Amino acid sequence: MSKKEITWSQVVTWLLTIIAVVISASSGIYQWNQSKRYSQNTHQILFNSAKLAEYDINLLIKKANEAENNHLEYGQLKFQIDSLNQNLETIKSVNVTSLPKDDTMNYQVYRQDLNGVIYLINSYIDGLREDLNKNLTEWELLNTSKKRIEHFVDGMVTAQNVIRRDKTSLKSEINLYDANYK
Length: 182
Prior knowledge:
The chain has about 180 residues and is mainly alpha-helical. Helices cover about 75% and strands about 0% of the residues. It has five helices and no strands. The chain has helices at about 10-65, 75-90, 100-125, 145-170, 175-180. Helix 1 packs antiparallel against helix 2 (about 75-90) and helix 1 (about 10-65) packs parallel to helix 3.
């Protein structure tokens, strides 16, 4: 029987193979951790966005209630509208391709809900305007009759309910699609 001798080239080959496997495994673990961290950060961004949107809607309700039968200019509401739009732009900046499947669905549903809420709010603000044919300016006086303010506040409560539902689902880590559409 002949014994096979191990040569230096075989040792080097095996050593390089082991090093390559270790590097590959380390790289994979690092990538998985980064993906998990990005997912957690995105979840937090969505939750924070919902909290900020809820705050802006609460301010719109407060301003409308305080303005009933008084002086209210569009500019007083515009700040919250701008804040909601900036909030939406932050959400749009999330890199969806880096998210796991469930987080992608949460992102899409929340983004759609926030966009719908902004559209709804703008529609209800139009309901306070006297003449929709004129260009809207910050100084335009809005109709603050009791009936119009109540209608506006009802719309804001609807918007608020959408955002609160999303916020509650995100906090409980419930899939937004399942919570909202099933």
